[in-house]
Description:
There is one protein chain. It is built from 12 helices and 10 strands. By secondary structure, the chain is α/β, with parallel strands linked by helices. The protein has a single domain (4-225), classed as Alpha-Beta Barrel (TIM Barrel), CATH 3.20.20. An 8-stranded parallel β-sheet has the order 9-8-7-6-5-4-1-10. The model has no long low-confidence stretch (mean pLDDT 97).
Amino acid sequence: MFRGTYTALVTPFKNDEIDADAFAHLIETQIAAGITGIVPVGTTGESPTLSCGERHHVIEMAVKEARGRCQVIAGTGSNSTRDAIVHTTEAQDIGVDGALLVAPYYNKPSQEGLFRHFAAVAESTSLKLVLYNIPGRCGVDISADTVMRLAEDYSNIVAIKEASGSVDRVSELVGRAPDGFTVLSGDDSLTLPFLSVGAVGVVSVASNLFPKEVVKLVRLFLEGKATDARQLHRKFFNLFKDIFIEPNPVPAKTILGWRGMMSPECRLPLVAMSETNVARLRKTFDALEQTG
């Protein structure tokens, strides 16, 4: 069962090459903070701009660095079913604990097409699979009916990262899900609301920056300490919103650059933040650093 706090890792670059040292250090900070798991080569990891060889290398590095100290869920989704199968089976061979499958983007399949896509991947692997619903990015929504059909027909489809922004959707999924199927928030600012209606964790971008605090927020709520979790949510709410004022992961990498953990470099078509948004992000970040 996937529950807790998972970090959608950024992929550090240096002069357009993967910065292995920075990536290893990032993973160590996550493990030291008590993270449940890490997610290499998700969309936060700029997977669309990684070559097949680079994807394979990043997943290998993540598994090697984790050394069983946290779960590793590899981002293996694609808008090509054949590619998604290849990525998933390769990740299984590397030794990951699960795979995150984003909905096919741009080609906008029907619900039947979505079902067959995920079914084909599920049939190709014994890995535990996490669906990823983010209609704002993919242009298609995995309906609750399709999710339930997949969860009921394929025992290795065990969770969904839900980033539709809808508390109603999470309520419906939780209410209809078979035993063992879990819902994870796909939006940092909605983690607390989603937890309140039955989600059991988050795949977080903010935990690249504040892993200890995001871990604590989720843990507090799951332990029944909702008031304390709400205080953390309020403290970090502006950051949760501002790390998305420009395309993800540009703001997150900007902050990691300020901390000296890696270059803020992203690959085209992503570019550096505007001066106006840098100033806004800096103000939010500095306020958190001052409060400790």
